[in-house]
Design goal:
Elements lengths: L1 E6 L2 E4 L4 E9 L1 E12 L6 E6 L5 E3 L7 E6 L4 E6 L8 E11 L4 E6 L3 E6 L1
Parallel strand pairs: 2-11
Antiparallel strand pairs: 1-3, 3-8, 4-5, 4-9, 5-6, 7-8, 9-10, 9-11
């Protein structure tokens, strides 16, 4: 069983910064991609950023130049540094981990409970 836990959300004024963390734990052999997604009220969940095990990244156009995703493979942890935050960044942010378990089974659908980010104008 794999657990994913996000932290670091909060309330910030427009133009401010937050750093989100995501830790995966449990029966893990290795982790392939890790990603951050967000869901605003009344909207579908959308990709924010993803990072491969070797550090290749991709970002949604709306966050390019403002957000940076990184990871620490030794700690099974991913981070999302969010700068120049805008009110439209307000959402619940979720972390996803594509995991190879200790039983050599690949499990894509590992999600955390989410962390709320609210940006005030």
């Amino acid at each position: 069983q794999v657990h994913v836990v996000e932290s670091g959300g909060g309330l910030v004024q427009a133009g401010g910064s937050l750093r989100l963390s995501c830790v995966a734990s449990g029966s893990i052999f290795s982790i392939n991609d890790m990603g951050w997604y967000r869901q605003a009220p009344g909207k579908q969940r959308e990709l924010v950023a993803r990072i491969t095990r070797t550090g290749t990244t991709n970002y949604a156009d709306s966050v390019k130049g403002r957000f940076t995703i990184s990871r620490d493979n030794a700690k099974n942890t991913a981070y999302l540094q969010m700068n120049s935050l805008k009110p439209e960044d307000t959402a619940v942010y979720y972390c996803n981990a594509d995991v190879i378990t200790a039983a050599a089974v690949r499990v894509y659908d590992n999600w955390g409970q989410g962390t709320q980010v609210t940006v005030s104008s």
